[in-house]
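## retry 2 of 3
previous attempt timed out at serialization; input unchanged, resubmitting
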Amino acid sequence: MKFLIFTTLITVFPVFSEVIVLNNGKEIDGKVIRRTKKYIKIKVNGKLKKIPVSLLLNSKDLKSKQKFQSKDSEFFLTATRENNIGRMKAYLKKSPGLLNTKNSFGDTALMIASDNGKLEALQFLISKKAKIKEKNNDGETALLLAAEGGFLSIVKLLLRSGADINARNFDGENALFGATEKGFADIVKFLIEKNININAKNVNRETALLIACDRGNLDIVKLLIYNDANVNSKNSERETGLMIAVDRGYSEIARVLVHNDANVNAKNKFGWTSLMMASYNGYFPIVKLLIDNDANVNSKNKNNETALSMAIQNGHSEIADLLKESGAK
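## retry succeeded, writing output
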């Protein structure tokens, strides 16, 4: 009978820092790997990365060049991160196949240059015909990485060089999502001008507008709305951008949404309306905004609760009075 082992080792590579290596269900003879998960998430250089379990082998396998990058590959990718064009040229002259080599995360030199804002390295790689549309283990392209990193000049160069503006990662997100989440309004504006799909949805059915409402970024909310983002799109919880903004107390974002035809009476999967959320949380200005724009003061959720009952329950007497004056029962 074979026994399964489980140990945790840490090693350091020149291309990236801490890598957790697991014997997760690996047989002692090393011939068969049994996996319970496809990926394990760990922090690498301060970023959360998904590591394929197939690469997380025991210490003996760390010496195998078949499992990890060759030294030339490691050094070439390091030179890219350091924007060292001279070293990049030298390694490519020695081994032309390094141009599209990948590290354990599936990142090519082009992705590393884009992710780290190394414009000169990127220009050199593009001049050598590096693959622009390649994806890493998370489905990220160089364009998605550059947009999330806030590197507008790199985003522009990649698009001029044939990058797919609507490429999506494995979470269903295009470049607009990363730029929106990180608050890079200049990149959001540029991507919109280049006709990116503004209403694309990720695996949680979120759009960039819902992300902007969640982050409280008024400028990006306006950019998206004024360029025909769907203000009534719902996520997997059946929440609209208005509900999200109201629940977080973002009154100015709520005002912009309401004045651009957001449905004030939409309900989430629990039957809550924006007015209920504002009343529950005690946001008087938002309650007034919603009432002034025809919110139904007597709507009920799945627990038969109303905005008025929530305001009373949470001691928001001023809101309760306003609701009663507006016909709440």
